[in-house]
Amino acid sequence: MLWICRACTCAYSVGAARCPQCSSTDYVEEGTEMPKITRHGGPSYEDRTPATQEDVDRLREQAAESVLVGEHEAPDYDTWEYRDLQAELKRRELSAQGDRDALVERLVAHDEEHGDSGEE
């Protein structure tokens, strides 16, 4: 099972504190639902409706459209932890050395140069 970010459609692991790409905490679940048994018995997700494939497809389409028309917001790197900033810089094959301000500055400069996509 994966979580799909509603903001950028990034797929990430269940239980993560936030989306690793855009730091959003709004997600839908994709894949086979696993029962989460509570201490008192019974699944803990009974009141939640699982996301359907149509939901995931619609969210991906909306995110793609918003990127195409320039509605995509750059990630708020000021809220990221130091190790997350380093991991993102390494993913982009940039230097991950320096203090927090230097890392944020490097990511922002890279985003501006590459259109906020984080891709090369």
From TrEMBL:
Record InterPro entries: SAP_dom, SAP_dom_sf
Span of domain SAP: 77-111
One Pfam family of this chain: SAP
Top-level taxonomic group: Bacteria
Protein known as: SAP domain-containing protein
